[in-house]
Design goal:
alpha+beta, binds magnesium ion, Beta Polymerase, domain 2, binds adenosine-5'-triphosphate, 48% helix, cca-adding enzyme, domain 2
Amino acid sequence: MDQYKIPRDKHSISRANIDDNALKVLYRLHNAGFRALLVGGAVRDLLLGLKPKDFDITTNATPEEIKALFRNCRLIGRRFRLAHILFGREVIEVATFRGPHDQQSAQDKQKVKQSQGGMLLRDNVYGSLEEDAERRDFTVNALYYDIADFALYDFCNGMQDLKDRKLTLIGDPDVRYREDPVRMLRAIRFTAKLDLEISPECAEPIRRLANLLQDIPAARHFDEVIKLLLSGQGLQTYRLLKEYKLLQVLFPILFKDGEDDTAHAMIEKALIDTDKRIGQGKRVTPAYIYAVLLWYPVEQRAHAISCEGGMEYHDAFLLAMNEVLSIQVKSIAIPKRFTATIRDIWMLQLRLPRFGGKRAQRVYQHIKFRAAFDFLSLRAHIENDKELHVLVAWWQEYQQENPLPVHQHGRIRINKASEKKPESTSYAHKKRKYKSKKRSASTETPDA
Ligand code: ATP
Ligand code: MG
């Protein structure tokens, strides 16, 4: 064990940079006689001199023992059972050390479940600290900070990989991707986010196994895609997802008729703007980026429907919106509160050109006017269309001449469907876990 240990004076992590609530949890576990260590992104990011997004803890206490220690504790997940300790809006996640799932006792067999293709459907065998490291995804994510003596543990050569800025999977990449195909998305996310280089052994299987992502529940993909595209490195992540053929599985509709350069240019520009907003600490909504991602498929489909069936463009557009969304939610379960906004942004594209008089006023007072106007400006920029430019200029002037009270957008609601929860959140700082969790938000139904 000692050969893996890096004492306090040989590393740079200080308690001063660890979240107070995470420290409280670590100490409570430690004082109750359990092992308690910080692990994952927090240790990795602190070593890289970055501000961690969240603080994950691992312990030899079982979920039930953790629950007994903390009043503010909730046990979650079936596939991967763990404890959430709640401090107001902050969640500290505590996981029990995982053990190997290949040498199971009869009893353990119930705690692990694997699909025929090797995908882990349940992973609840507990083990030692060293075994826990083997169950993690990348070497740089398997570094531990021990609250007992402030030492680090590095069982998988993560420190060296961090120094070399290399992303390497622990174990056989093929097996590890098959166990959990989301690791392919995580590989891309960390490569982009931390500016690491993906090792050739880790990169090689991705294109070959990309289709396995189809077996992942669409709800999990929604969370992952937010982390991928709305964490501040959306552009780079998007390019890598495309290069590794993962985007094609997540958004098959974008590639149905080959690649559309205009569509991709629009997506890239939207991601550049989004990355900038996140960098400035501004809020972003997933609905906007989905509206951009799926805009050209909707337009194309609307044209096709109106040409084929001689239907009015407006009606064809409505049909196309529904078709595209119902195909998309099969791979990514976009909650209804977002699809309602996506529809608003799209529908307003049809209403923005009918400017003048009362109509303009009504469109202007629509709760999604601002997003729809930004969307229109983006289209004008990408398509370099004279009419769209004229329209943007007209609305720009209109807004200057008719300034709205700051709070007005948000009060007048035209589309009831988009009421309820605010869907604009600073996703750069929001914790969303990969582990399955109960979902209260309803999602768009396929083939709705
Ligand atoms: P982030 O900065 O996005 O929070 P993270 O590495 O902390 O990055 P989390 O999703 O918070 O990512 O997970 C915490 C840790 O749990 C990871 O660092 C890794 O050790 C382990 N982990 C997460 N997802 C997986 C997975 N799919 N397979 C194996 N280990 C995982
Ligand atoms: Mg984390």
